[in-house]
Design goal:
The chain is built from 16 helices and 12 strands. With 426 residues, it is an alpha/beta fold. The mean pLDDT is 94. A 6-stranded parallel beta sheet has the order 3-2-1-4-5-6, sandwiched between helices.
C-alpha cells in the first residue's frame, strides 16, 4: 500500500463521519424546540416516531414534552437501531422488506391514531426507512403480498420516489393516510430527508403529506417497468380498481430538519486546506452509469482536491450475490480507476450505516483495491456480474463498516486526490 494511502483513507473516513454527525436528528430537534417549544394540548400528546432515526428523535422530543402532559410515545425502527427508551414503547420492524413485526407495529400506530381526538396533539417524527418499517396493508392485500412488492421493486432498480409512489397506494398510513387516521386531532411532523430533492411525499412514503399519485399512476409505473405482472394478484386487482373520489387533503405542519445537502455542506466546511467542492446533491440512476459519470469527473481533478457528491443510486439485480448500491458503486469505481494513477481514494456510503442487506455502510476503495481482490484469489468480473460487491470488497479489506448511525440522509460519495494537505485550517 503506497505511503499516502493510509492518510487519504483516514481523511475520507473523517469527512464521512462529519456528514453523519451533521445529520444528527436529536441535535436538529433540540435547536428547533429551543425556539419553538411544543404547545401543551388540552388532551393527550402523541409522540410517534418511525424510521431508522426513530429512537434518537423520540428521545429528544420526550425531553421537550410540556410538564404534566399526558404523553403516549411510540417508536418503530429497524432492529439494528432499536434501544429502550424510558416512558416509551419501542417496536422493531423489518427493513428493507416488511415483516410480521412491522405489521404489528403498523397496527399499533393505526389504533393510536384512531384513538386521537379533537383536543389531542399528534407529533410525527419521520425518517427514512419508514416505508418498509410500518406496513399497514389496505384491505385485500396481505403482508406477504407487500413483502413481494418490495422485493420486486428493489430488484427492478426503481428510484425511491417511484417505489414509494407504489407503496403509498397499498397502505393505510402512507400518502397522507396518517392524517386521515388521526383526524380530527392536530398534527405536526418533523422530517429527516433521505430523498433526493427532499420531496416530503416520498420520505417514508409521505404519511403526513398528500400522495404522490393515484392507483392509476402507480399501476402505470409498474407497467412501464414491465413488472406489473410480477405483482401478487391481490395487488394487481387493487391497483386496477377505479377510484371515484380521492380522500380530502388534511393540513399538517411539516418541518424538514436534516437533509443530504446539509451533510455535504458540513463536509465542505470541515475540509480544511483541501480544495473541497460539492459537485452534486442529486445523484440518481443505476450505479453502472453513475460510476462512469464520477470517473469522468474524478479523472480531471488536480492534486489536493476533495470532490463531494450526494444522492441515492439504484442497482439492477442480475445475480444472487450480496451487496448494496454503495458497495457496487465503489467497486465499479475501483475497476474503472485502475489506470488513474496513485494518490486517490473513493468512498461511497449510506449515512444510516447500512447498505442493502449487509452489515456495511458502503465501500472505501483506492488504486490497490483490485490488486488486493485478485491477490485473495477472487475473480472481480464474476463477482460484479453476480452483484457480489460485498465479497469483493471484503476480500480487499475495503468495506466501510460503521454500524447503525441513528440517522439517514441518503448516501454521500467522497473522492480525494492526494497528497493530503500538510496544513489544515482550524
Amino acid at each position: 500500500m503506497p505511503n499516502s494511502e493510509p492518510s487519504l483513507r483516514a481523511e475520507a473516513t473523517r469527512l464521512f463521519d462529519i456528514a453523519v454527525k451533521a445529520a444528527d436528528p436529536a441535535a436538529a430537534l433540540a435547536r428547533h424546540f429551543a425556539t419553538t417549544p411544543i404547545s401543551a394540548p388540552s388532551g393527550k400528546l402523541f409522540l410517534l416516531a418511525v424510521g431508522k432515526a426513530a429512537c434518537p428523535m423520540l428521545e429528544e422530543a420526550l425531553k421537550h414534552a410540556p410538564a404534566g402532559a399526558d404523553v403516549k410515545a411510540v417508536a418503530v425502527t429497524n432492529r439494528e437501531n432499536m434501544r429502550d427508551i424510558p416512558g416509551a414503547l419501542v417496536l422493531p420492524a423489518g427493513h428493507p422488506v416488511p415483516d410480521q413485526a412491522g405489521e404489528i407495529a403498523g397496527q399499533t400506530i393505526v389504533e393510536l391514531l384512531q384513538s386521537a381526538g379533537e383536543s389531542d396533539l399528534v407529533i410525527a417524527l419521520i425518517s427514512g426507512g419508514g416505508s418498509a418499517l410500518l406496513p399497514a396493508p389496505v384491505d385485500g392485500v396481505t403482508l406477504a403480498d407487500k413483502a413481494k412488492v418490495s422485493e420486486v421493486l428493489l430488484a427492478a432498480g426503481l428510484d425511491i420516489t417511484q417505489m414509494n409512489h407504489v407503496r403509498q397506494q397499498l397502505s393505510r398510513i402512507k400518502g397522507g393516510g396518517f392524517l386521515q387516521l388521526a383526524a380530527p386531532a392536530k398534527v405536526g411532523a418533523f422530517i429527516l430527508s433521505d430523498v433526493v430533492g427532499d420531496d416530503l411525499r416520498a420520505i417514508a412514503s409521505g404519511p403526513t403529506v398528500s400522495a404522490i399519485g393515484t392507483r392509476e399512476t402507480a399501476k402505470a409505473i409498474l407497467e412501464n417497468n414491465n413488472i406489473f405482472k410480477q405483482m401478487p394478484q391481490s395487488v394487481q386487482a387493487y391497483l386496477s380498481q377505479p377510484v371515484d373520489d380521492l380522500p380530502p387533503v388534511i393540513a399538517a405542519k411539516n418541518t424538514l430538519i436534516c437533509s443530504n445537502r446539509q451533510s455535504l455542506e458540513a463536509m465542505r466546511d470541515a475540509a480544511g486546506d483541501w480544495d473541497a467542492q460539492i459537485i452534486a446533491d442529486d445523484l440518481e440512476g443505476d450505479v453502472e452509469d453513475v460510476a462512469q459519470l464520477l470517473l469522468n469527473i474524478a479523472s480531471k481533478a488536480p492534486a489536493k482536491t476533495a470532490l463531494l457528491f450526494g444522492g441515492e443510486t439504484t442497482v439492477t439485480l442480475r445475480g444472487d450475490g450480496m451487496g448494496g448500491r454503495n458497495q457496487e458503486l465503489a467497486l465499479r469505481f475501483a475497476i474503472g480507476a485502475r489506470n488513474m494513477g496513485a494518490d486517490w481514494v473513493f468512498l461511497s456510503g449510506g449515512t444510516d450505516g447500512r447498505d442493502g442487506p449487509t452489515d456495511a455502510a458502503g465501500g472505501l476503495v483506492s488504486p490497490t483495491t483490485c490488486d488486493r481482490i485478485e491477490a485473495a484469489g477472487q475473480d472481480i468480473d464474476a463477482l460484479l456480474q453476480n452483484n457480489d460487491s460485498y465479497a469483493a470488497l471484503k476480500a480487499a479489506g475495503d468495506l466501510l463498516i460503521t454500524g447503525g448511525t441513528g440517522t439517514n440522509v441518503a448516501d454521500v460519495q467522497i473522492f480525494l486526490r492526494g497528497p493530503v494537505p500538510t496544513v489544515k485550517k482550524p
